[in-house]
What does this fold into?
Amino acid sequence: MDKPSPYFTSLKCRECGRLYPKQAIHVCDFDFGPLEAAYDYDAIRAAISRDILRGRRRRMWRYRELLPIDGEPTIGLQVGFTPLVKAGRLAAKLGVRSLYIKNDTVNYPTLSFKDRVVSVALNRAKELGFQTVACASTGNLANSVAANAASAGLKSYVLIPADLEQGKVLGSLVYGTNVIGIHGAYDQVNRLCSEIAGKYGWGFVNVNLRPYYAEGSKTMGFEICDQLEWRIPRHTVVPMASGSLLTKIHKAYNEFIRVGLVDSTPFSIHGAQATGCAPIAHAMKRGTDIVKPVPKPDTIAKSLAIGTPADGYYAIHVMKESGGSAEDCTDEEIIEGIKLLAEYEGIFAETAGGVTVACAKKLIETGKIPRNEEVVLCITGHGLKTQEALAGKCGELRLIKPSLRDFEEQIYNKDAALAT
It folds into this structure.
C-alpha cells in the first residue's frame, strides 16, 4: 500500500464541506452533494515552484501534488502536455486579437482529453485494489478506459449508447475490452452503471471513482497557464457535456493562484454546447441555475449529448462568477466550426471541437468576448473519431487519368480559370 500523500488529504462535500476518507465514494451521506478531492495547499505551496515544475518531464504528472493519488503514477505516464497553438490565421478570420488552441486532439493514447481523467482514475483504482474497471461513455471515455486498462492489465467494461459513431466503437473494441451497447440515451446508460457499481463493486471511473476522475481535467488548465509562461488567459472557451471540464479548468486556475504559481488576474470562462442538447447553455441564457433535462438529445455532437448534466449547476455558477457566458450552435454551425479550424490552422477536431469554435465565433460577434482580448479554445478530441458527421460536406474527390494532359485539362486549367 502506498504511503498516504501529504498533499491530497481527503474527499470533501461540495455542498456542506463534510470530509470523507479517500475511498471509492462520490456522494455525501448527509445532503447527497458530490464529493471532490481536497488538498493541503500550504504544503503544496512549500513543495513546488515554477523552477521545480520546469525541471520535470512535459506530461500531466508534473503537477502531481495537485492530483488525487497517494503514490507515484504507474498508468498513463505519457499523457498530457499537448500543444498550445497560437492560431493567428483563425484569429484573423474570427476578428479577435489573440487566439490559442489547446489541442487535445493529439493526446496520448486515444486522441482526446479523456486520457487525462482516466489516467488519474485508474491510478487511484489500482491504489484502492480494484481489478475490474468500467465506465458509462459517449465514446471518448470508453476508448480511453479500454486503452489505459489494457496497458495496466486491468479487466474493463465500457457501456455506451448503441447509436455511437462506429469509429468510437471500434476504438474501444480493438483493445479487447467488453463493449456493451445500450438501447437508450447516455443518461440511461449512466443509471445502469450506478446500479452495476453498487451490486458488483467494480471501479466505475465516472461513478464511484468520480472524485478522482474529475480532477484529471484540471491538468488542461494547469498546462494552459504553464504554456502561457505562468499566466491565466483572459478568456477560455470550453465544450460542455456534464459541465465538469469547465468547472475543473476554473479550479485549476484558482489552485495555481493559491499555491503561488500565477498571479491573480481577471479571467472569464465560457461554455459551449450543441443546440440539440444544450441544457446548461439554455439555463444560463434564461438567467437561472435550474438545469432542465433534455430527454432525447438530437445533435451530431454525440460526445456532448448528456441530457442531465451532473455538473450543470456548478458550471453555471463558474461562468457567472468569472464573468463568462454560454452559447450553443446548430449542427450546420458545428460542421462550419470543424472546417474553420481545419482550413485555417490544420487541426482536425471532432464534433465537440466544432461546437467550441462555432460558439466562440458567436461570443466574439456578440461582444461577450471583446475582440481586443486573448482567447483560448479547448479542443478535446480528434476528428478521425467522428468522420460520419462530415460525409458529403467537405468537397469531392477529383479523379483524372495518369497523364499530364489530363491533369492540365481537368485540374490545372480549371483552377487557373477560377482564380482569375
Observations:
- The chain is about 40% helix and 15% strand.
- The mean pLDDT is 96.
